[in-house]
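The following record pairs a protein chain with its ligand, tryptophan.
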Amino acid sequence: MEQRKKVLSAIQPTGDMHFGNYFGAVKNWVALQERYDCIYGVVDYHAMTMPYQPKKLRENTWELIFNLLATGVRPDFLFIQSLVPEHAELCWILNCFTSYGQLMRMTQFKDKSRQAGELGGDGFISAGLLDYPVLQAADILIYRADYVPVGKDQEQHLELARDTAQRFNSQVRKEYFVLPEALFTEVPKVASTADPTRKMSKSAGEKHYINLFAEEGRIRKQIRSAVTDTGAESDNGEMSPGVANLFRLLKASERLEAHDSLLADYEAGSLKYVDLKEAVADALVAISGEMRERKAELLADKKRVKDQIKASSAAIRKRAQQTMREVKELSGLLNVRF
Ligand code: TRP
């Protein structure tokens, strides 16, 4: 039987999961499970690179596990990064094969170091933030993943992972690490309904994202107040970003019939935005209803689910440990089993 290609992706436990995360990434993770050997991580080590609270981090980690399981991610494909400490160990080794200058040039480092200075208020920027892409490289290389489904914003990090892998391979004179490729699946990019010129995200504040597990009333309210035409751009004959975003949400929710008939109304000049908004709200409410139902079932069995994820993390750790034995051998480190 042909070996399935390996897919690895990861997400940081930083609080609520929203429709942008779901349509833009997690829904695709679920789909990829059919075709690939998938490994999906909740990367808590990564979440320490920005100012954070220890107690909140642990809560967010489990919360994200339950959220991911509710969306349909398979429990045996899911692990918690800090339960596989070999990621940090490999990160150290890879640090010694990564160019400091290349890390300094990462756009995300430049953006986030500015943010960290502002958030913490004291200008503190951790070395972890600079090193973050090397930990990400370790996440990928430790399982010899072939494909990494990521957004365009992660392309630079993936290039760094390949450069680091290549430098390691040439140093040890062996094509040991697989050079991972980005998997850019066409995924809908959802914007904030409060400001459709920016993407849906938590960092901009509560009104800029719609929680995937939100109650019906909250979703309807957020969609009702979605920005449509702001006046300025409505004269040039192009669809305004807010209206386009509502259509995108409808399509991402797989309400294709409603989408097409409302789009026909738009083109005929007879579309009422209230109708579009109602269709979008109905679609999102239906999805969040399903998500909340599945999450409630999982939460009713909390201990069993947590044990299951600890067990899957332990199984995934075995794969990471095998890689570490080989890497230590190749890099001239000692390999003693106590
Ligand atoms: N850096 C990614 C993000 O912020 C998260 C991440 C960490 C990741 N490790 C990874 C993504 C490995 C893909 C593969 O979105």
